[in-house]
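Below is how a single chain appears once it has passed through the pipeline. First comes the sequence as given, then the structure the pipeline wrote out for it. We keep one example in the README because the format questions we get most often are answered faster by looking than by reading.
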Amino acid sequence: MDAPPAHASRLLTAFAPPGPGPVGPGDRVASLIAMAFDRAGIEARDGDVLTVDARTVAAAAGRERACASDEDFAALVAGAGAEPLAARTLGGRTVSVVRVGQRALVDAGLARPASYPGTVVLPLPDAPAVATALAASLRTLLRARVDVVLTAPDARPGALPPALLAVGATLAAGPADAVAAAAGLAAGPGYPFAIVRAAAPAPGSAAAPTPGHSAAADQAADPGHAADPAVPNAAAWFRPGAREAARAALGAPALAAPPPAGDGSDDVGARVGRAIATVRDAAASTVGEDAWLLAARGAGSLVAIESAPEPARSSAGGHPLLEATIGLGALTDRLLAALRIEGLHGTVHIEWGATGAPLAVRVEIGLAAPEREDRP
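Resulting structure:
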């Protein structure tokens, strides 16, 4: 029987020396990293990947801000990301998912202060460019061809505390994520830097690093996860969340105010109130909608769509009553969709007048069939 083919052994290590302590505006992060590894007796090698807490770099860039309340924190989150994707209330606080670059980060990657007043470090405006500049400085100081991955904590509910995400790197997205995940087992509070190193196999072996990649990155990453350069904005394809996407489709702002409870504990009255707000926040889709008013009745067990106090008027040259009838149908359909977003079902009852025109619509509220809450 033929002997099984021999393969080179593979080893991946992650080492995090103690950090330099508080970092402030004007500090040179590359020098701090070099000194930290020098104190620890670690010499960088070609192919090493250095992971660096992006908040440390941002603090050195002067991006710390005072934060005195949950309201201040929410305002900082809103101003930190290019696009809000989803929001929920958890423990009485609003938790948001915001797109920062090509990353969807909880609270835009900001760390909420343990107590108020406190400080918050805003994310870097162009983390990939910062990673490239930092790598150039480190290659000079360390005299080694190293790569850099800037990391942020994975703050998603249920994520383990060591979990790190890559937010900017000199590597492709797949290898950068894998390196960040490996470094998360060593780095953490008080340890903002780490070296991820792979024992380089013999040149030409099956485990040799891919040209253009570090050995550590190639060994940590599954090549199938690498970013496709022909699809630079693939992250934008993923829907932000079922409720937010549906609100946007109805023409309302994607984020509800106040946001729904993250644990699904909202009562029917709160859900009905948000559904009515969704209808009101959306721009009119047809004529005659301004002839009607919406109101919740019976602690949210019913929604009434009734005539506005002012007489119906024509806005498109048609008969006012016909335009109002068209508008009533559009509002009713939008309300039913908004209720469905909230996990509710509506049964429509129309009140007719003596002339055959509708006078009002009553929508009885019930719970829709339960379904899994979509995770953004």
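The CA atoms of residues 209 and 215 lie 5 Å apart.

See the next section for the split statistics.
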